[in-house]
Amino acid sequence: MAYMIKPVVTEKANGISEKGNRYTFKVSPEMSKSQIVALIEELYDVKVTGISTMNYDGKKKQRYTKSGLLRGKVAAFKKAIVTVAEGQTIDFYSNL
Asked: Which of 17, 9, 29 shows the shortest CA–CA distance to 79?
């Protein structure tokens, strides 16, 4: 099964990264902490020392169009904040 893992690059996430060795990722909701740690260590070649996860429910959205009211829902996701070992960094822009 293919899991989704994407770095979150926002002002708040960058502020957390600059204060300590903490990086934010958006991951699949069904992933466990151990799976997230293993995947990040494999992808970015770093040693993960801590992890915090948060589950977000999908938000309901609606908009008005010519054909009437359209209703839908944004997908649920999980956010992981990962702490890496002292002296190690993750460069999100290296593989662009």
From this structure: 29
